[in-house]
Design a protein that fits this description.
The structure holds three protein chains of three kinds. Chain A is mainly alpha-helical. Helix content of chain A is 62%, strand content 0%. Chain C is mostly beta strands. The chains are: A mainly alpha, B alpha/beta, C mainly beta. Chains in contact: A-B, A-C, B-C.
Chain lengths: 110, 206, 104
């Protein structure tokens, strides 16, 4: 079966030529993937991450942005390989959200 | 294009971008992931910062350096077309990819680079690809109707020119060597470099 | 080990429905092309995708196709080509000459 990522030759609309900025979180996704795949670490191969976003479902693939797809796939593979656990990631996300919520509250007072 | 845009047609959404909430959420997740990886001793914060600096230092200026040198030095050009990676490294540009295939535009040939399966790009030279290169519209259409795609970029390619599309699907990465300007012998290397744009190196400009 | 194909050989991309991560897009499967360049041996992405990072590697070729044999798209000119990389295990030898749609 043709994968949902395998779109060469498909019909598609006009190419959007606006140049979008490369955001800091997007750079971080790339930086961390590069580090995890480098010669000393060899934790995630590029093709493993590709397998991640090619198999996590078409809804996710179609609705997530390019770098978000890569982020989600990287997390899936890290959990699959038992490099990290979902629980420790969830705990860290919870902590970050608390920090952000208080940051946002403080900034709205200014 | 909003990420939740509903579409009833069978065409691909040209490009999906995060809204503000999506960007904030992604930022939180990648920050959290970095914390977990650091706690597990797999990387350090300075390594991440350094890697971002390395990626930010790439760009069209490096591609322009390669092209201008090839325009001014026929021997270098011949070797560059033979073995892209070693010739690019020779002028001080580190190359992470397995090989860089440099494809030459001539009066009779035009080359266009794409990646239909994901968004492969000579990142160690040019950095991140432009957003249109990673769009589904470009990935889907660049192989089937490349002349129409070029026309959308303002390039009406003469019908007698041979158009060669390169789908970067595996281990090679590609760089277009545009045609040298006619006055190449009268201009210096620095001036020649200013004539090269990123779009020339992908092939949506000629 | 001697490689199977030389530059100029006519080849056919295998039309198989292999599950898992592969780097051979559907649009090129079953198509006839010509070996343009030998790229060397690389680890098979189908193995790398499942964490197998060692092994002998597979031969990789750049293969050239006539655009008019791939698509029914009048804008493409008879001389227009598409070049894509194909791993050895996705290729079969063929004596069939590559014809464009107009000639078939």
């Amino acid at each position: 079966m043709k994968g949902y990522h395998d779109i060469g030759g498909d019909k598609a609309g006009v190419i959007p030529k606006e140049e979008l900025p490369w955001l800091y979180w997007e750079k971080k996704v790339e930086a961390i993937r590069n580090l995890l795949g480098d010669g000393t670490r060899r934790i995630i191969a590029l093709d493993e991450m590709r397998r991640g976003f090619e198999s996590f479902g078409q809804d996710k693939y179609d609705n997530l942005s390019f770098y978000r797809r890569r982020l989600e796939a990287m997390i899936d593979i890290l959990i699959e390989k038992e490099i990290i656990t979902q629980a420790e990631l969830d705990a860290a996300i919870g902590e970050k959200k608390r920090v952000w919520a208080s940051e946002l509250k403080n900034s709205s007072k200014i | 294009m909003s990420k939740n845009h509903e579409h009833t047609h069978n065409e691909h959404e040209p490009i999906v971008v995060e809204d503000d909430a999506g960007n904030l959420e992604a930022q939180i997740i990648i920050d959290a992931l970095q914390d977990v990886l650091m706690a597990n001793g797999l990387l350090t914060a300075p390594e991440v910062t350094k890697q971002i600096e390395v990626m930010e230092a790439k760009g069209v200026h490096l591609g322009a350096k390669i092209v201008a040198k090839a325009w001014k030095d026929p021997d270098y050009k011949a070797r560059l077309l033979e073995n892209g990676k070693s010739c690019i490294q020779e002028i001080g540009i580190p190359v992470g990819e397995a090989q860089i295939i440099v494809v030459e535009n001539t009066s009779q040939v035009h080359n266009l680079i794409t990646c239909t399966l994901c968004s492969c790009y000579p990142r160690s030279i040019l950095g991140q690809p432009p957003s249109w290169y990673i769009s589904k519209a470009y990935r889907a259409r660049s192989v089937r109707e490349p002349r129409r795609v070029l026309a959308e970029f303002g390039l009406e390619l003469s019908l007698d020119i041979q158009l060669i599309v390169h789908d970067s699907n595996a281990d090679m990465r590609y760089l277009v060597l545009p045609q040298a300007p006619e006055n190449i012998d009268d201009i210096d290397m620095k001036t020649a470099e200013t004539l090269v744009t990123r779009d020339h190196l992908i092939g949506v400009r000629r | 080990m001697k490689r199977r194909f030389d530059i100029g050989d006519n080849v056919c991309v295998r039309s198989i429905d292999k599950p898992g991560h592969v780097r051979i897009p559907f649009y090129i499967r079953g198509k006839l092309g010509t070996i343009l360049q030998y790229c060397g041996r690389y680890l098979n992405p189908e193995d790398l995708a499942v964490g197998k990072t060692s092994g002998p590697g597979v031969d990789l070729y750049r293969v050239e196709f006539v655009q008019n044999t791939l698509w029914d798209q009048p804008d493409n000119q008879p001389q227009d080509k598409l070049v894509i990389e194909i791993y050895d295990h996705w290729l079969t030898q063929t004596n069939t000459l590559v014809k464009s749609r107009a000639e078939v």
